[in-house]
Write a structure and sequence with these properties.
Layout (H helix, E strand, L loop, with lengths): L1 H6 L2 E8 L11 H4 L4 E9 L4 H12 L6 E2 L4 H11 L8 E9 L2 E7 L8 E2 L3 H4 L7 E5 H14 L2 H14 E5 L3 H10 L9
Parallel strand pairs: 3-8, 4-7, 7-8
Antiparallel strand pairs: 1-2, 4-5, 5-6
Helix pairs in contact: 6-8
């Protein structure tokens, strides 16, 4: 399936076409992209530069935290982050995304190994207390929802502590548009300086 290719770090591009007559006037992209004939999918592997893992190791050695903010598919991004050493091999990751629940999409959480075991949005509070302390990978749309909704789940000092921990463990922001990327980067607060 396409999701399996994404898990291997492959990018996918669908190829379709339609013939247009010289008299046909197309006024929108949606109009142009309707009634297409599907030809197939091209899989693209965009290999990391050989220096990428070295740079990531150097950043980590100097206690500089690295995160990924990208427009790519969530599973493709996870595979790339693991191969670059941003996510350590074997480290547990929880995904925040939209999942189908019966007949509608809902925001929630899942672990990549059991992505069909959807957990409701509020489950993040319990997930964050897990002994293994999973890292967090979310989509741009989920991030927007998270910021809007977390205040209804937690409040006061509990919220501040939770957000600090959430920020520390959030390592991947995928399927993000320009505005979501800007909001993600803008939401990060520099860590508190070490006490002397």
């Amino acid at each position: 399936t396409l999701e399996n290719f994404a898990r291997l770090g492959l990018r996918m591009m669908g190829i379709s076409y339609r013939e247009l007559s010289s008299q046909e006037k197309v006024e929108s992209r949606d109009g142009l992209e309707s009634n297409l004939i599907f030809l197939g999918v091209i899989l693209i592997e965009n290999k990391l530069k050989s220096s990428a893992t070295t740079v990531i190791r150097e950043l980590k050695a100097n206690l500089i935290r690295t995160s990924v903010v990208t427009g790519d598919n969530l599973y493709t991004s996870l595979a790339v982050a693991r191969s670059a050493g941003i996510i350590p091999s074997g480290k547990l990751v929880v995904i925040g995304d939209q999942f189908w629940s019966q007949t509608r999409q809902r925001f929630g959480w899942a672990f990549p190994s059991e992505e069909h075991a959807f957990r409701p949005f509020e489950a993040i509070v319990k997930i964050m207390t897990m002994e293994e302390k999973p890292l967090i990978a979310i989509t741009g749309e989920f991030f927007e929802h998270f910021i809007d909704q977390i205040n209804s789940v937690l409040g006061g000092e509990e919220l501040d502590s939770f957000l600090s921990d959430f920020q520390e463990r959030s390592i991947l922001f995928a399927r993000s548009n320009y505005f979501q990327k800007a909001a993600t980067v803008g939401s990060y607060k520099p860590p508190n300086p070490p006490k002397s």
